[in-house]
């Protein structure tokens, strides 16, 4: 069985939902479909929650009313039978009443999780109703029945596997199995989610649990591009990536893939295919185990990075210095992205500065600390094995007019990263496209 995941834009209008219906039924084979919320909906649900946190029920109601009017219009355009329209209208009216019910009570992050879950609940109901209307044997599986995280907020893969098998066994004989991306329960049984953009992760976890023969991520672009298409003109789709290359690109800013999505597929050995919903014949990108030697594949960039340097003569010839430094970051649950060292200092980058002041205060006990904010990591991905003569030189050459704060090479065979100012990002990405891909 294949898993096909469709992102927000791919289910973003009644027309697109009809397109999804034809894509998932094309093969005639049983298929597992994961859907995101219609594009813009999760943002609206977050906006509603923000109003409720600020004790502004009028603001929340205004957004709810607007959203409801939009969804009711979608119903008119999506279905042709009056009975499907009526059933879907009633279902959606219940959803919006549910959202309104939060405007009356105390509001916490628990309520917020329930609110943001409704986008996927609505889109999946709408699509399954459409499939049934056109005579396809489709069933909606509630992700909250089998998607769960553990006490560390990591997916509970064993639980997911067992529960999903039970659910599939109880629903044999369907052509299309649909479920919600993004949403799950946590270890305490409460409604939770896999973080923004997490529907890709759902698809990959389900693909590994089934197991599927392939996980397809259908989106609004024809695959992973060799540079960020939102910033650089003339980017091109990369036809193949290995799992490590894809994971590096996703982690370092290629928004097309959720950073965590590659891992379950990689461990289960299931290829991931990125496909273009608006042009299904386009090749897309295949992500698998194949390693292509001697090729730099793509570039990505990640913003909002802070660089921290600690300089200390105590580091000279000392053992245990780095451990002490890392323990400070660990105690504030702040992961380090990049690291470079010299005999008397160490520079690190972080993407979460919520405990920056505390970290800096503690680091000051060991040496002089400097902080650079508004930085950005530019990451070049491909076969960057150290035996490839001159590959790192090509990348550094592209940076010759840009102040570079840190360079990291040799941590993996697939990446060389530069820490630069956010203000220089566009120039750096353009330079890299020119040097690496002749664009
Ligand atoms: N290297 C890249 N290759 C392809 N798309 C990228 C890349 N970097 C950023 N993107 C952006 O990712 C977007 C698709 O991701 P996303 O909006 O999350 O899709 P969906 O809503 O379908 O999940 C594209 O429209 C594109 O602008
Ligand atoms: N709807 C959620 C989950 C998601 O993955 O969406 P998308 O597939 O459109 O990135 C979000 O907006 O974060």
TrEMBL record:
GO terms for biological process: homoserine biosynthetic process; lysine biosynthetic process via diaminopimelate. SUPFAM superfamilies: ACT-like, Carbamate kinase-like. CDD domains: AAK_AK-HSDH-like, ACT_AKiii-LysC-EC-like_1. It catalyses: L-aspartate + ATP = 4-phospho-L-aspartate + ADP. Pfam families: AA_kinase (PF00696), ACT_9 (PF22468). ATP binds at residues 5-8, 219-220, 230. GO terms for molecular function: aspartate kinase activity; ATP binding. NCBIfam families: asp_kinases (TIGR00657). This is Aspartokinase. It comes from Segatella bryantii (Prevotella bryantii).
């Amino acid at each position: 069985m294949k898993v096909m995941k469709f992102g927000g834009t791919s289910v973003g209008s009644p027309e697109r939902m009809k397109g999804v219906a034809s894509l998932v039924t094309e093969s005639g084979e049983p298929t597992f479909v994961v859907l995101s919320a219609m594009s813009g909906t999760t943002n609206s649900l977050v906006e509603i929650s923000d109003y409720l946190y600020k004790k502004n029920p009028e603001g929340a109601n205004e957004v709810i009313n607007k959203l409801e009017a939009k969804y009711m219009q979608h119903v008119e355009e999506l279905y042709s039978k009056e009975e499907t329209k009526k059933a879907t209208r009633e279902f959606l009216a219940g959803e919006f009443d549910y959202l309104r019910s939060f405007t009356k009570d105390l509001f916490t992050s628990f309520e917020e999780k329930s609110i943001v879950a409704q986008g996927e609940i609505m889109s999946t109901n709408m699509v399954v109703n459409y499939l049934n209307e056109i005579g396809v044997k489709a069933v909606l599986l509630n992700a909250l029945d089998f998607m769960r995280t553990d006490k560390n907020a990591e997916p509970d893969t064993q639980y997911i596997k067992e529960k999903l098998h039970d659910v599939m066994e109880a629903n044999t004989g369907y052509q299309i199995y649909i479920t919600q991306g993004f949403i799950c329960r946590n270890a305490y049984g409460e409604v939770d989610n896999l973080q923004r953009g997490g529907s890709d992760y759902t698809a990959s976890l389900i693909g590994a649990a089934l197991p599927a023969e392939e996980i397809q991520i259908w989106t609004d672009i024809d695959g992973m591009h060799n540079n960020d298409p939102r910033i650089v003109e003339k980017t091109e789709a990369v036809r193949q990536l290995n799992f490590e290359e894809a994971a590096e690109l996703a982690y370092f800013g290629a928004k097309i893939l959720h950073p965590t999505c590659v891992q379950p597929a990689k461990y289960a050995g299931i290829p991931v295919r990125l496909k273009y919903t608006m042009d299904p014949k386009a090749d897309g990108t295949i992500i698998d185990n194949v390693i292509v030697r001697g090729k730099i594949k793509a570039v990505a960039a990640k913003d909002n990075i802070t660089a921290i340097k600690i300089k200390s003569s105590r580091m000279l010839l000392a053992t245990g210095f780095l451990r002490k430094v890392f323990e400070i970051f660990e105690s504030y649950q702040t992961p380090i992205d990049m690291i470079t060292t010299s005999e008397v200092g160490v520079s690190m980058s972080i993407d979460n500065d919520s405990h920056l002041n505390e970290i800096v205060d503690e680091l000051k006990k060991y040496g002089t600390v400097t902080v650079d904010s508004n930085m950005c990591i530019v990451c070049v991905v491909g076969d960057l094995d150290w035996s490839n003569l001159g590959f790192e030189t090509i990348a550094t050459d592209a940076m010759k007019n840009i102040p570079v704060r840190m360079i990291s090479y040799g941590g993996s065979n697939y990446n060389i990263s530069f820490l630069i100012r956010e203000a220089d990002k566009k120039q750096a990405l353009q330079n890299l496209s020119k040097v690496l891909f002749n664009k």
